[in-house]
Amino acid sequence: MNNLPGKLMQQPFIQASLIFMASATAVTMAAYLLYPLLFTLLLSGLLYAAMFPTARYLTRRGVSRTQAVVAVMAVIVTIVLVMSVLLYPLIAAQLDQLSARTGSIDARLTHLLQQINELTSNHLHISFDPAAMAAQLLDSVTLTLSSLQTTVSSYFNDVAFSLFLVPLITFFLLRDFRVLRNQTMQLLPNRYFELGWMIYNAASSQLQGYLRGISIQMASITLICTAGFWLAGIDFAPLLGILTGLLNLIPIFGIALAKIPPLLVVLLSDDPSLTSMILALAVVFAAQIVDTAYILPRVIAKSANLHPVTVMVSVSLAGYYFGFTGLIAAVPLLFSAKVFFLELLRGLSDFSPLHQQRIMARLKQSIPHTL
Amino acid sequence: MDHDSDQHSLNRIWSRPFRKKSEWVEEATALCLAHCLFDGIAERSVQHIVSHMHPRNYHRNEVIFDMGHAGASAMLILSGEVVIMADTVELTRLHQGDIFGEVALATTLPRTAQAIAKADSRLVFFLRSDLDEWIERTPREASRFLINLSTMLAERLMQRNLEVMDAAIPDHS
């Protein structure tokens, strides 16, 4: 009875939970201290996961590590520069334009509701007062647009600030991460050295695959939507494409959230017709079909296997506390935590006295003459 | 003189905080080249592989790994002495230049024996993940290593079979 705490501490689940909580606390403290650079570091980590296979492929082909990293970085810097020169001024101008249009939202909304009223009274014999409904909707829509514009503007300002630091951090991650990782693992006590490496290898291969998958998913949806919006003649195609690509990363919520920005833009356009709204929805819908049918099964598969309630709660809380970045980062962080905990539990179970006794018994049964 | 030395160390830390300490690499490379597991593999490749290994220090009587635990690496003895035990039976004693735990490079099965440092020892760990990377990078050289590993394990099995036969038929030899 007196030995109960000691016995409990030997349970792999208790050990894994304690180590997980200690690690989570350390990561939270580090995130708090590094908050001004958090977005930059996350973006660098994402780029590192996406570019690492290319750098590794080049080193396998006989190119030195530094040359491989420089080659990969040249591609990243070129893309970043092209985006900065071409895309950023366009997006900034479009955001200003979008903001200016919110001033005339009442007239646009009334015009759209009149169209809907005509349609419903002709075909469904249902009518309403467009002006009254426009007035009712105006307050909430204006509030939503204002907050969306502020959030998106600050998000893209963060991206613009990060454009200078991200390539630099990614370069050093690609070149020195291995040495940094090995030196960190050397801090483990002898007893946990092999176990630490087993947990790290199992968790990192899953996480790298997942991060690479969501990078490909985001880029594909962004490209499909940008091209679709442009072909459908919807304004702000690049901005909407990027937003849809980002929002689509959120499981469950993403499929609905990704449809809101194009609808709002159509609502604020010079000609907020029903056809444009249907076209905007069709583009997002088509991109999501491609995502579900081709991209998800091939690049992400079942990796992000999280319970819907867990996703809903974490996305809601992360969005409430950390805004747009929290909304996007919630599921990848939750998935990382899940992988880390499960691998920790599996590793500690493989090293538990109970597991050892079971293996010894099996060995004695199979080769009795050796023992 | 001491001040210069400190200054030199400080500069090294400042300039490359994660610089790999390579003093042991030359020694470990020479020991690997002399071992049958690395037969037929170019010295440059062995040096490259060794530079990715992980040195660790063990005190006298410290357990290196336990029987039945999961294993992820083989170990090269840089200095010291290691005893391999099965239950309470001492199977063998190993010294500088010997490699043990190599079964973990071939399979994910649990360790089949216990290893204990019998003197203060310095070991170099060769992880299965390092071997996997080697296989991906230079498959031809890595397959040479795997053939050597298979030969070593097959020879051990043959030896074991002979021992069993000797025990079963006393006048066999």
TrEMBL record, chain A:
The cross-references to InterPro entries, in alphabetical order and at most eight, read: AI-2E-like
Give the UniProt keywords, A-Z: Cell membrane, Membrane, Transmembrane, Transmembrane helix, Transport
Protein topology in the membrane: Multi-pass membrane protein
Primary residence: membrane
Its GO biological process terms? transmembrane transport
Pfam families to which the protein is assigned, alphabetical? AI-2E_transport (PF01594)
The identity of this protein, by name, is AI-2E family transporter
Q: Which domain of life is it from?
A: Bacteria
Any one Gene Ontology cellular component term annotated for this protein = plasma membrane
The answer to whether the entry has keyword Transport is: yes
Write out the annotated subcellular location: Cell membrane
| Family (UniProt) | Belongs to the autoinducer-2 exporter (AI-2E) (TC 2.A.86) family.
From the record, give the transmembrane residue ranges.
Answer: 70-91, 155-174, 239-258, 278-300, 320-341
From TrEMBL, chain B:
| GO annotations of cellular component type | cytosol
Return the SUPFAM superfamilies for the record. Answer: cAMP-binding domain-like
Domain Cyclic nucleotide-binding intervals: 37-135
For molecular function, the Gene Ontology terms on record are:
DNA-binding transcription factor activity
One Pfam family of this chain: cNMP_binding
Name the record gives this protein: Cyclic nucleotide-binding domain-containing protein
Taxonomic lineage of this organism? Answer: Bacteria, Pseudomonadati, Pseudomonadota, Candidatius Mariprofundia, Mariprofundales
